[in-house]
Design goal:
about 80% helix, mainly alpha, coiled coil, Ribosomal_uL29, Ribosomal_protein_uL29
Length: about 80
């Protein structure tokens, strides 16, 4: 049975840069909501904050890799 993290990585690696940025924006909004719930005391799953932060970092890493790859493919203009 594949691990959830591996499935998440496979899914985000197949997305293009625009979709990754949209997913990043959605995750950041989720994080804000989770933090607000934490402050109020209504959060059920406290690990969700940590998992969301880690997923944001994974998305940022994949975005960085894709940007570097796209810059490497472009011929340098001087």
């Amino acid at each position: 049975m594949p691990h959830k993290r591996n499935e998440f990585l496979k899914n985000i690696k197949n997305l293009d840069i625009a979709e990754l940025q949209k997913r990043l924006q959605d995750m950041e909004m989720d994080l804000v909501k989770l933090r607000a719930e934490s402050r109020v005391g209504t959060i059920k799953d406290t690990a969700a904050i940590r998992n969301t932060r880690k997923n944001i970092a994974r998305i940022l890493t994949v975005l960085s890799e894709k940007r570097k790859a796209s810059n490497a493919q472009k011929p340098s203009q001087k």
